[in-house]
From TrEMBL, chains A, D:
Pfam families: BPD_transp_2. InterPro entries: ABC_transp_permease (IPR001851). The chain crosses the membrane at residues 12-29, 41-63, 70-90, 96-115, 122-144, 164-191, 221-240, 301-320. CDD domains: TM_PBP1_transp_AraH_like. GO terms for molecular function: transmembrane transporter activity. Part of the binding-protein-dependent transport system for D-xylose. Probably responsible for the translocation of the substrate across the membrane. The lineage of its organism: Bacteria, Pseudomonadati, Myxococcota, Polyangia, Polyangiales. One of its GO terms (cellular component) is plasma membrane. This is Xylose transport system permease protein XylH. It is a multi-pass membrane protein. It comes from Polyangium jinanense. Its main location: membrane. Keywords: Cell inner membrane, Cell membrane, Membrane, Sugar transport, Transmembrane, Transmembrane helix, Transport.
From TrEMBL, chains C, E:
Residues 1-221 form the ABC transporter domain. Keywords: ATP-binding, Nucleotide-binding. This is Sugar ABC transporter ATP-binding protein. The keyword Transferase does not apply. One of its GO terms (molecular function) is ATP hydrolysis activity. PROSITE patterns: ABC_TRANSPORTER_1, ABC_TRANSPORTER_2. InterPro entries: AAA+_ATPase (IPR003593), ABC_carbohydrate_import_ATPase (IPR050107), ABC_transporter-like_ATP-bd (IPR003439), ABC_transporter-like_CS (IPR017871), P-loop_NTPase (IPR027417).
């Protein structure tokens, strides 16, 4: 690819913002561990989980829909794993399979309702969010009388699962590998396959897509299932690593994932976006979050910095893009 | 006044009594989950009907509206937590004026009594935090992190305030670390980022903070050198206390806050009986290596 | 109304007469309220444009059915992308696609600097030419064109008309909607005139002269008066 | 207006949903106080505050932008009133004026950043949300060492303010009158004035609006200021009524307001919507929320019902609209 | 390039020649990279379309600049709504507006059932007619039309051309962009030919014949060959 084409990439801005944030924290918090290996590992671990959610969320948003239910899908999936293993005595892998099946059903239901009724997905998935969150709380308390379930390490197959979902490679979490792999896969699907082409069309001009014979509804349903399965995967990471789960796991992750996607240049109105951008958005978010802690800002003022750094990052992002657009002409 | 109102409410005791509970913490919160278990058990034991309501977030306006709705349903008794007396005053006075007997639990105390509450069952969060701080100080902790998973929630803020005050008194210092209760990964990484070499103690406000704290210490190879203590119990917390990873856990015995409030309200509405005390303290009690194993079973059942 | 293979049916009518609506019914966008649609003599009911495409009916809509933010190449092949490799490694064959598009556009007299530029950067006429090239490329049996020449210059319009005739030669049926009775008469075999949603009759080329066609479209005498006025002023 | 025109109104669906929800709760919770005057007053009080937020939020959404910062604007405004009166000893009215000035500045800043930088308002106002929320916590704790401030009743002018902002008319809250008045005003502005026309154009076709000489940026900035001022007004209600405030007041209100607007038929992508619809959306939300409490559903399962009723209401809403659209033809 | 009062300047050019871009520069949508813009002899720099409008330059864009979800009446008056009452009670005068629109559309030979229907329900031609009616109604001194007749039938196109001439009679300068050299030659006073973003020369009506114009637009001999082919087939 020529230099001009690289300049035209939508991710350029967010990459610049990531570099700027890194430099900022390297200067302000460099001596308190931000630059160490374990410091780097700490924000990468946050970015990895968020990034795994943000990739399918970006695809869904490019196709013009939202999924607000991924946070509570995480809670429901994690609790399914925990309950199946501790209460029913299933091996861990069976629990994970059950959770994945549940997540797939949730995604299917979301997609089905959205495409059939043409209701805004914002509302439909908000409804699913409530139903799943409430269902998780109600079921868990009914069965265990508590809101936390632990003791997963006694389940069969925990050892292998731990290596796969919660292992460490040096100081780095294995989720990093998952993140890289899934980002590469999602990027490939988006820019190099037919379904990827359709995703852009479905979000950019739904009527045109329909007239050209693209199975708009099927594309959307599959994307809703993908976001739900990604939520289940992240829930699996957390449940295995922390050997248990609670009913509030994942609350608010949906907004973080949307934020990461938008930071990475995905349009809220659909039709444009990139998976690599979403990954960079997740990295930026994780770096800012951890960087503030490293720089020792008082908890009371934490959010002020988060907000300010966010706005500055996006400003930098957009000004770089504008420069690039001018250079292109 | 008390006797009169009692006789007024005993009259319709032939109908199945209905009590309403409104607190500032949802049953999805592990702490309040135990409170609710106490309530449900007492409802079964006493043969009364109890409903439990709480706002979606720490929201005093929403909470006062919930009390209003419950008062409009005319329950035989009302059990409330009163974290912000001035915000809830109007609703509580409305309950009093409607002749509904009120018991405050968890938070409230003297302020709630001024607004007509018959009795308070619970502990002072500040005092409990302070007791925790004193005990940590005794263990030799001087530089501590107070992990707050709900900044802005007055109960949690008071716990950290008491803890830090106690630590300061012995010349130590501490820092409040705000974390996200719903994401253990984020919480763990944040604790690790705040874990500078001089830190020798971590005080968490509940299980959402303590598991990530332990995982972080394990990963940083400082498990054992950094002392960990926490509020509130769970089977995992107790196992960690038993194994010596957690120095102690502060227990409010909040099950009693739920259980006793329903029992006492039932006795009061049926027979006009009421303990001759203004407040029944339920905590703080400390769970340590010595007694941890004994309460694990209770914790598994959601009683502690 | 009928279209046979190897013939061009022109549909003419006033603004708002229902031409675009008729097209959308034919191509499966809207289900018809009444009336039947016969393909090869058997009645069909398209539940989606995909059905119509599968029957070999390709359409250029008046609003072109383009995705503004996608590139020229991707728009051209949208819904019928060429792929290579086998699943799960099946991927777009972008190089081949680009060559096809470049060739097709060149045949229409249009050369683009950058095939990966988004369609939204094209001029109105370039966009229309792209849509037509796409339909012709994919138009297997019936080609439906809604005002294909309206945004085109004389040269491109001429090229499009030549294409339409080429399609007929290849045995394709063409439904051409146009406001330009000159264009229509030049290439059409039969002419259907629509007015306020009703069919006003179908004529073969032998039955109707160009002037008659112009007059009918313009609402009879009114036009003559107008042309008179225009000359006079 | 003819019957056909009434059927064509976008609010028809949400009105039907409100009626259905009322009937549902009248049947399931009628005997437990839902139908009493005080029961009605209790959901109307919730609906009134939400509705006052939802009206300007709907206008802003019609113009194609979001404001996620209204929740923390509420917290900041309320705390400004409380700190000015209790710490600085100002009379209550001066405190309210200061809060309004603050809110206007927040709105101005939001609007200015969004229109100047062309950044998505979702991100910009999320940044403002963090900054304001953190700033409120930090400042309050710095000054008072606590997160709650009470004792407003001792401030000068409290009596009149209480009549105006927190009075009762029989069992009903005076905020109801404010709601009705502001909804009427916003409706009038939207459908009967030039700026109203511009709001639709700005959201429906921004390029066209710009080309026709509509001051797109000014319209947006004013709308951002309106949402912020509405947040300040609601904060004033709450602060005066509850004689104090805390730093978390208003958290999540931004999403409830957007939800109310969307329930009332406002498009997330801008260009279409109605203030009356948003008011009905707020009423529906309040009614459902309180109705579930009245029907005595266990709080473990509360969210399940909330989600289910939401989805059902929107389904009814859209099916009524479809019928109406068919009848129109 | 100059436009005087009371004259019609036609701009002709191939697809993608830069006609629409030129128009957008003239009307203040894009600032020009180079070159100057003179109004009444003094150089101006429009920073927004509002400035251009204030100078009395009204434009019909090729993509019409309509808000699809707003009603016909509201689109017509968008940005220049008639009001009555005094602030703060100043409100839209919808009744008067509706009458004006009805009258203007009637003059163009278009009658709509429902003036409060959204513009998105109109046909392509009706929409274009509305945009033209709007520009003519508000076009104080210079009227800029980008392909006004392309989506119109013979009758409506005739009406539009008559309007354009009427505007000239009223002392208005008109810039007309069209692909139809017949239309152009019928009404234009001077002709500018654009090609690939450059001006290829301006001619008065006396200097250039219709056939010459057609040929130039189509790229010289190529067209003749084409017409020949079309005839032949
Ligand atoms: N002077 C110029 N220099 C460089 N590029 C130009 C110039 N004018 C126009 N362009 C580019 O040419 C492309 C098409 O321009 P435009 O839309 O103005 O064509 P047009 O003449 O209106 O064509 P049509 O008749 O098909 O509508 C645009 O991408 C534009 O950026
Ligand atoms: N058969 C019909 N019966 C009733 N209404 C119709 C019918 N056909 C079309 N209409 C209506 O007429 C309006 C314009 O139709 P359409 O867009 O098809 O016009 P058109 O002939 O394509 O005009 P143009 O040449 O200007 O593009 C639409 O609102 C459509 O709903
Ligand atoms: Mg048409
Ligand atoms: Mg053009």
């Amino acid at each position: 690819m020529s230099a001009r084409k690289w300049l035209a990439r939508p991710e350029l801005g967010v990459v610049a913002a990531v570099v700027a944030a890194w430099l900022f924290f390297a200067v302000t918090a460099g001596d308190s561990g931000f630059l160490t290996l374990s410091g780097t590992a700490s924000y990468l671990a946050i970015a990895a989980e968020l990034g795994i959610l943000a990739a399918p969320v970006a695809l869904l948003m490019i196709a013009g829909e939202f999924d607000l239910s991924i946070g509570s899908t995480m809670a429901a999936s994690g609790m399914t794993i925990a309950l199946c293993t501790t209460e029913l005595g299933w091996p861990l892998w069976a629990g994970i399979a059950a959770a994945a099946a549940l997540a797939a059903c949730v995604g299917l239901a979301n997609g089905f309702i959205v495409t059939r009724t043409r209701l805004p997905s914002f509302i439909v998935t908000l409804g699913t969010l409530f139903i799943l969150a409430g269902g998780t709380i109600g079921t868990t308390r009914l069965i265990t009388g508590r809101t936390q379930v632990g003791g997963l390490e006694e389940a069969g197959g925990f050892g292998t699962a731990q290596k796969l979902f919660a292992g460490q490679i040096g100081p780095f979490s294995i989720t990093l590998l998952w993140w890289l792999g899934l980002t590469a896969l999602a990027t490939w699907v988006l820019v190099r396959t037919r379904p990827g082409n359709w995703i852009f069309a479905v979000g950019g001009a739904p009527d045109a897509a329909r007239r050209l014979g693209i199975p708009v509804d099927r594309v959307k349903i599959l994307l809703f299932m993908t976001t739900a399965l990604a939520a289940c995967l992240v829930a699996t990471f957390q449940t295995v690593q922390f050997r248990g789960t609670d009913v509030l796991r994942g609350t608010g992750k949906e907004l973080e994932a949307i934020l990461a996607a938008v930071l990475g240049g995905t349009l809220l109105t659909g039709g444009r976006g990139s998976v690599v951008g979403a990954a960079c958005g997740a990295l930026l978010f994780g770096m800012v979050q951890q960087g503030i802690v490293f720089s020792g800002v008082d908890s009371d003022w934490y959010k002020v910095f988060l907000g300010a750094v966010l706005i500055l990052a996006v400003l930098l992002n957009s000004s770089v893009q504008m420069r690039a657009a001018e250079a292109r002409r | 006044g008390r006797g009169e109102r009692a006789s007024a409410t005993t009259r319709d005791s032939s109908v199945r009594a209905h009590f309403a509970v409104v607190t500032h913490g949802q049953a999805s919160d592990p702490f309040w989950s135990v409170v609710k278990n106490g309530i449900d058990q007492a409802a079964k034991d006493m043969g009364v009907k109890v409903t439990y309501q709480a706002p979606q977030t720490f929201d005093m306006v929403a909470m006062s509206r919930l009390i209003d709705a419950e008062v409009a349903r005319k329950p035989s008794g009302l059990i409330v937590s009163v974290p912000d007396p001035s915000a809830l005053a109007r609703s509580l006075l409305a309950a009093r004026d409607a002749g509904i007997p009120v018991i405050s639990i968890n938070a409230g105390g003297a302020e709630a009594r001024k607004m007509g509450a018959l009795l308070h069952i619970g502990q002072s969060e500040y005092d409990a935090g302070k007791a925790g701080g004193e005990r940590m100080a005794k263990e030799g902790v001087r530089h501590a992190i107070c992990v707050n998973h709900e900044v802005g929630n007055i109960s949690q803020d008071e716990r950290c305030r008491g803890f830090l005050d106690a630590l300061e008194k012995v010349g130590g210092k501490g820092r409040v670390l705000a974390v996200n209760a719903t994401s253990p990964t984020d919480t763990q990484q944040k604790i690790m980022a705040a874990l500078t070499p001089d830190v020798d103690g971590i005080f968490t406000l509940g299980p959402p903070g303590v598991h990530p704290a332990l995982a972080g210490l394990r990963q940083a190879n400082r498990l054992g050198t950094v002392k960990v203590a926490t509020f509130d119990l769970s089977p995992d917390v107790l196992a960690a206390v038993r194994d010596g990873q957690i120095t102690f856990a502060i227990d409010q015995q909040q099950y009693l806050q739920g259980y006793l409030s329903v029992v006492l309200l039932a006795q009061y509405t049926r027979h006009g009986l009421l303990p001759a005390a203004e407040a029944i303290p339920t905590g703080p009690s400390f769970v340590t290596k010595e007694n941890a194993a004994a309460v694990i079973d209770a914790s598994k059942k959601g009683i502690r | 109304m009928r279209v046979y293979a190897s013939e061009i049916l022109c549909v003419l009518g006033d603004n708002g007469a229902g031409k675009s609506t008729l097209i959308k019914t034919l191509s499966g966008v809207h289900p018809p309220d009444e009336g039947r649609l016969l393909v090869d003599g058997e009645p069909v009911r398209f539940s989606s444009p995909r059905d119509a495409l599968a029957r070999g009916i390709a359409t250029v809509y008046q609003d072109l059915a383009m995705v503004p933010m996608l590139s020229v190449v991707r728009n051209f092949f949208l819904g019928a992308e060429p792929t290579r490799g086998v699943w799960p490694l099946r991927r777009l064959d972008l190089r081949e696609a680009e060559e096809v598009v470049r060739a097709e556009l060149k045949r229409m007299g249009i050369e683009l600097r950058d095939m990966s530029a988004p369609v939204s950067a094209l001029s109105g006429g370039q966009r229309q030419a792209l849509a037509i090239a796409r339909a012709i490329h994919f138009g297997a049996r019936v080609l439906v064109l809604d005002e294909p020449t309206s945004a085109l210059g004389v040269k491109q319009a001429g090229i499009v008309l030549r294409y339409v005739m080429e399609a007929r030669t290849r045995g394709c049926g063409v439904i051409l909607i146009t406001h330009n009775p000159h264009h229509a008469h030049m290439v059409g075999d039969r002419f259907t005139i629509l007015s306020r949603g009703r069919c006003e009759g179908t004529f073969t080329k032998a039955e109707i002269s160009r002037d008659e066609l112009v007059r009918r479209m313009a609402g009879g005498e009114e036009l003559e008066q107008l042309q008179h006025e225009l000359r006079a002023s």
